[in-house]
Amino acid sequence: MSNYINEIINTKIDFLKSSYISNKNVNHQGIKGSLNEILFLELVKDLIPNRFKLSKGIVQDSSGFQSNESDIILYNNEILPALLFGVELGFVPCEAVEYTFEIKSTINSKELDTTIEKFKNLKKCIGYKGRNVLFSFSSDIQSKSELRRYYEKDNAFLYNPHIKTYCVLNKGYYFFTFQKIYLKDSINKNDFVKQFIKQNKCHDMIVGDNSFKIEYETENIDVNIEKDLIINDVNYEDIYFTYYCWAGIEDKKGNCNLLGLLSGISNTLCKEKFGTYLLSNCIDNSFNIYTEYIVDMWNNESYKEIDFNGFKETILNSNTFTLSSNNDGKLNKLIVNKK
């Protein structure tokens, strides 16, 4: 059955692509850039709820600090109103900002450096929680991964990147995400206890009202999941880690990169997932994982995997989580071992 919504959006993307090619004939670089920004803005505008507005302009916090000028700011007009000058320029309170976009005709190393610095400055706004997006119609490199190039420039790439979403029209769409995960949701108590015993020689363990001195030979302890599990004064229920990830899609010929970006924006802002309509023809271009980075509750690096060719299987599907302790017997590190 034909997906009419998908067909219309793809037609709009095809128009954006053809218009970008036509705009190359414009000699004035400022006008050319503005035309490309308008093309992108018009595409996004059709896919977001009415309470969200789009404007070029400045993001400002309540102390008076101002960002550099941004190509497009997407903000929630119901949180705080923007001070607009016509329809082209606005001063937007940082608390209202959902997305800030930098739009490039052709991304290169210098433009990437400039974008990183602009977004780094934007982070100085007190109360800013928006997502920073770099979108480019083309790139000056073909063989090298765009994500790898960014990785080489941002020291915080794995856990707090300045660019949170990166899309190049015919190269790839990449997005950064993170979540706080409790250990209990990743491995059940019985499996955890067995792995903990293998990892650690001797520790105090309390299960419910029963106290155990854990030794290798006590591996067959049966943990009642209805009772508290306390290991060296740490409740199993309270142990958590933070999982950071870069994922995305690389479509060299079709529209799936931009459809992925539009889906991410729409899914974030809408109550339902509009991406199911937009990505219905992108099954053959499935999403990959490019980086996984885990930091435990004690701020230790527990796991790191980087592959810019992409991989499918996440470490979160592995039941290889355990804990180690330091010399004083206190728990101090979550260990993640890949199968």
Structural account:
- There is one protein chain.
- With 339 residues, the chain is an alpha+beta fold.
- The protein has 2 domains: 4-140 and 251-284, no CATH class; 181-241 and 298-336, no CATH class.
- It is built from 7 helices and 17 strands.
- It has helices at residues 4-23, 29-45, 109-122, 146-151, 189-199, 256-269, 275-278, and strands at residues 52-60, 70-76, 83-85, 89-93, 97-107, 131-139, 165-168, 172-182, 203-207, 210-214, 229-231, 234-235, 240-249, 288-296, 301-311, 321-325, 331-336.
- The strands form 3 sheets. The chain has an 11-stranded mixed beta sheet, with helices on both faces. It has a 4-stranded antiparallel beta sheet with strand order 10-9-11-12, with no helix packed on it. Strands 16-17 form a two-stranded antiparallel ribbon.
- The protein starts with a helix and ends with a strand.
Write the layout of secondary structure elements.
Blueprint: H1 4-23, H2 29-45, E1 52-60, E2 70-76, E3 83-85, E4 89-93, E5 97-107, H3 109-122, E6 131-139, H4 146-151, E7 165-168, E8 172-182, H5 189-199, E9 203-207, E10 210-214, E11 229-231, E12 234-235, E13 240-249, H6 256-269, H7 275-278, E14 288-296, E15 301-311, E16 321-325, E17 331-336
Parallel strand pairs: 1-4, 5-6, 6-7
Antiparallel strand pairs: 1-2, 2-5, 3-4, 7-8, 8-13, 9-10, 9-11, 11-12, 13-14, 14-15, 16-17
Helix pairs in contact: 1-2
